[in-house]
Design goal:
8 helices; mainly alpha
């Protein structure tokens, strides 16, 4: 019975370690997010603030904050996010700026076009190229 208890404790330690490692990855990748999103990820995964407490601070519902955290984690841990981080330095400057705005910062195509001074068509073409490069890498 002592072995069973020890195994359970080892499993818990592994889970804690994985969670800590994942939090470090999330906080590290959060540097590429916009200011508000970076603050949310840092508050939750670096400072240990609960979604409920963060919601109170921000004057939002806990459900809204949890949904935002979930969406941010999904984006940060996506293959596309990792691909853009890895490959962006090899791309032309405009494609790099578009991929950074859309994939890393999470802007819509229209928002990225407005911020970067590009047409929606140009932003869409660059994002199509980024997705094609990503698909080619996956094959």
């Amino acid at each position: 019975m002592d072995c069973a208890v020890a195994s359970q404790h080892d499993g818990l330690d592994l889970r804690r370690r994985r969670t800590r490692e994942m939090a470090e990855v999330l906080v590290g990748r959060a540097e590429w997010l916009g200011d508000e999103d970076r603050a949310i990820v840092s508050a939750v995964y670096q400072d240990g603030i609960s979604a409920k407490d963060l919601a109170n601070i921000r004057g939002q519902s806990p459900r809204c904050v949890r949904r935002r955290i979930h969406a941010l984690v999904q984006r940060i841990t996506s293959d596309e996010f990792a691909f853009v981080l890895r490959a962006r330095d090899q791309w032309p400057p405009t494609r790099r700026r578009v991929a950074t705005a859309c994939v890393l910062r999470g802007m819509s195509l229209r928002e990225a076009g407005d911020k970067l001074g590009l047409s929606l068509h140009a932003v869409r073409k660059h994002m199509d190229a980024v997705r094609a490069l990503h698909s080619a890498e996956l094959r």
